[in-house]
Amino acid sequence: MFLKDYITDVFNGVSSLLKGMRKTGYYFTHGKEIITEQYPDNRATLKLADRFKGEVVMPHDENNEHTCTGCTACELACPNGTIKIITKFDITPEGKKKKAIDAFIYRLEMCTLCNLCITACPSDAIKMSANFEHSVFDRSKLTKVLNKPGSKIKEGIE
Amino acid sequence: MLSLESITKTTQDWLLAKFNPTIALAMECAIVILLAITLFAILGLVLVLLERKVAARIQIRLGPNRVGPGGIFQTAADTLKLIMKEGLTPDTADKFLFNLAPFVVMMVAMLLLAPIAFAKNFQIWDINIGVLYISSISSLSVIGILMAGWASNNKYSLLGAMRSGAQIVSYELSAGFAVLTIVVLTGSLQISEIVAAQQNGWWLFKGHIPVVIAFVLYIIAVTAETNRAPFDLAEAESELTAGFHTEYSGMKFALFFLAEYINIFIVCAIGATLFLGGWMPLHIGHWEGFNHIMDYIPSSVWFMGKTFFLIFIIMWFRWTFPRLRVDQLLNLEWKYLLPISLFNLLLVTVIAIMGWYF
Question: Looking at the partner chain, which of B60, B61, B336 has a beta carbon nearest the beta carbon of A10?
Fold first, then answer.
């Protein structure tokens, strides 16, 4: 029985090693599997992963409308005070006061790109963009206002 | 037809006609030394680049691609950098041994070059105990490594050197047994005769199962002997920083690095000579036409092709398998490789006596 175990041992060992070599051999012979991006040569055609987290942005539609209600859930969720939301009160046509954002201030230099604000947002007003070229010569340029000037909240978002 | 054989013959005739035999011999020696050093330099550059490119492809990367077209001058640039670096010797090191060690390792690699047949009748020294010479000289490289580890006066270096010693002493055995199978079949230790015996077919095919087993054992054992992954315990970057050459820098480090790659080339060349017929073209039985076409490919191309094929296999090992632990390393040798190679040698002996090979 000892000899049988010994031979099975050797056989299993060799077959598992060959399995590994088959995988690496496949990668060696299939050049199209190469995933290296030749940045910055291919800056125009750069492919990034879908879940790549570059910075927080607020998408606006064609009418310059966003979906941020100014609930400050993101501000509370942020672990290091990156987001500061300044609210104002709009007067609706019916004469009621409605809370809206005046400025969504985002400090990129303090952001750790942890994604907590995006998960906290109840109306999907902010998301992560894939832009990663953040170098600037002046630190103040990293403090951004995410809502565009003159933008307002989309109809029907509470 | 222009071949390496005719070039050497013309050179020798010309030297003998111009000078008296002693001076001619001295000049031939000088030419051989020059050629050997040139070969070393070129091999170092080519093999390091090849290794990096193969590694990159296997790991789905591109590898060096900035210096020159496709990165072909990368290793030349690296060498230039190493030449310009300071060759630092630690204060507490044994200075004489510390500076001697890289040259010992290098010299062993150079000595091993002597009996290798690079092409038809193109061999530095066709000694009649060629295989014995190779196995005895190759075991000397451990002295250089131990010397480096000891003289560095560094714990990592010493540990690396000791591991390397244990490893080379162990794996020398199964490498030796694998080589012996071919010696048993050929009945000669001379490299040229071993190659000549493969005129009608390489030993890997003629000797069928036992020689294939010996070939696999040989490849595993020499991978361990050259201290390459998965047996790179002597360097083990993640455990011992760089093992025996932790304290080396500049050109002295480059010599160790070069010696490693030259050793790979040499063991692969020996493997190609013993198992794959050295410079012999691929001949299949009585297919005269096929054999004739194969003869048109120069013998040096055959030799280099086979050697680089084996080098590629060893590189493939390196980038596929994880490093073994010390006890696993010694288990593999003493519990698996050695018994199998002993049994295999017995099998080959029976086959050689009964004539059960082609």
Answer: B336
**pLDDT for residue A158 is more than 70:** no
Task: Note the pLDDT of residue A137.
Answer: 92
Architecture of domain A49-153: 2-Layer Sandwich (3.30)
Q: Give pLDDT tens digits for A78-118.
A: 898 888 888 888 777 777 777 788 888 888 888 888 889 88
- Report the residue of B50, B52, B320 to disrupt the A interface, i.e. the one with the largest count of A CBs within 10 Å: B320
Domain positions in chain A are 2-33, 49-153
pLDDT band at residue B300 under the 50/70/90 scheme = confident
Chain B, window 22-81: residues with a beta carbon less than 8 angstroms from a chain A beta carbon: 54, 57-62, 65
How far, rounded to the nearest angstrom, does the alpha carbon of residue B158 sit from its chain's CA centroid?
25
Q: How far is CA B134 from the centre of its chain?
A: 10
Percent of chain B clearing pLDDT 70 (strictly above): 98
Contact assignment for A24 to B58 by CB distance below 8 Å: yes
Residues of B in contact with A24 (CB under 8 A): 58, 316, 319-320
Residue A150: φ, ψ to 5°? 80, 5
| Residues B273/B204, Cβ–Cβ less than 8 Å | no
